[in-house]
Each structure stands twice: as C-alpha cells, then as structure tokens.
Amino acid sequence: MLFASLVLMLALPQERESSVSQSASGEEVVEPYKVDPTNAGAQPFAGADMAQAFHGQEGIRRVVEQFVSLNFADRRVGEIFMNQDKVRLKRVLFEQFCYILNAGCTYTGRDMRAAHKDMGVQQSDMNRVVENLQSAMQMEGVLFNAQNRLLAKLAPMRRKIVGR
Ligand code: HEM
What we know:
Largest sheet: none
CATH class: Mainly Alpha
Strand content: under 5%
Structural class: mainly alpha
Bound molecules: protoporphyrin IX containing FE
Number of helices: 9
Number of domains: 1
Mean pLDDT: 90
C-alpha cells in the first residue's frame, strides 16, 4: 500500500507535465492554425480511379508508412526529419494523400508553407523526398501512370516547401 502510494506520487507529476506538450493521441501539440482541407495544397482527383490505383485507404496507409520510414532513415534528408513528430506526420500525410486521391478523407493539417517554414529545404532535398515517395509507391505496386498523376499534383507545392 505504502509502496503503491509512493509510486503514484512519483508518477503523477510526470504525467501532468507530459500532458502539456503531448495530446492524448501521442502527438506533440502544434501552434493553433485554421483547419481547412484546402491546406492540402491540391484539389482532389475526380472519381474512384486514383483511390483504386492506390488500393484504397489501406494501400495509401502502407505507402505513407513506407514513405515516412524512408525519409527518416535517409542519409541525405533524414536530418531534417529527425526530432520531428513522426506520429503526427504519418496521420496528416495519410489524410493529405487520401484527400487528394479522393479515397474518402478530409485534410486537417497545416498548409504546405506553414508546415515547412524555416526548415531550409533545398531543391535537392525535394528531389530526394520525391524519390522516396516513388519507391514507396513502387513497393505498393501502384502503376506507373497513377504514380505520375499523384506526383504531378504534388509538383506545384515545391514553391511553398523549398526555401529561398
Ligand atoms: C511534395 C512534397 C511534400 C509534401 C506533400 C509534404 C507534406 C507534408 C505534410 C502534409 C506535413 C504535415 C503538416 C502538419 O503537420 O500539419 C509535412 C511536414 C513535414 N515535412 Fe513535408 N512534404 C513534402 C516535402 C518535404 C520535404 C522535401 C521535406 C524535407 C526534406 C519535408 C519535411 C517535412 C518535415 C520535417 C515535416 C514535419 C514538420 C513538423 O512536425 O513541424 N517535407 N509535410
């Protein structure tokens, strides 16, 4: 009993502290922003073709998991991702791709300029991240034509992501 209350006393303040910087989902809290699906930075495709080409939400989730893992482990861009909130990144990237591919989601993340602000992303970093996305889509067996259609939607975001 005494031991149990000692454990409680030690555990409680810690828990209170972590609830300040982390939400219940395990994500770090970010600065408030206006939630708006147009923050995704591209209009969704029409129809179900693209969602099917990515094997629905389950396929999109696998692509995002793989894409994020490749970026974090990458020798060239890994440093930029290191220490960032992987849990949030996976969730909102999934939403973004799912929204753009018209697979039945909305996007609740930040706009591309705000999300990549002060990160110092170079064009070469952008190229590397696109290569990692291509690898992730390849591993999922997404056909080449559908891969390129998604990449074409993402291409104009470069202006907001690459720093000057
Ligand atoms: C077309 C290419 C890209 C897309 C579609 C994209 C998409 C996103 C999205 C949706 C988020 C999360 C926004 C939020 O938290 O609300 C994000 C965050 C992030 N992106 Fe990108 N991104 C791209 C390129 C890049 C590149 C080239 C880099 C660096 C090499 C990069 C590094 C990051 C990092 C580190 C975060 C986490 C930021 C944080 O937690 O504060 N991204 N990106």
